[in-house]
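call fold(seq) -> tokens
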Amino acid sequence: MPQRPGGSLSGAIVGWTLAFSGYVANAPEQTSLAMHSIVALFTIVPGLLSLAAFATLRWYKLDDQTMQEINLAKMQSIVKG
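ret:
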């Protein structure tokens, strides 16, 4: 379920960034700021988000004991219905 709001929010952020940078749809040429924003949206932003995900998952404990607890919780929720 969080994928839909996340997708909507990311699309809005891209739109706002392009609007702020002076992007004009179907224009033969874009401003320098618009071009730099497009490059940043395709390179720098994903790189930073990947680093943030790595940093978050670096300390996420996922061993056999944790997996057993997760599976037990899943089974209990299925039984409860």
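The two ends are 19 Å apart (CA to CA).
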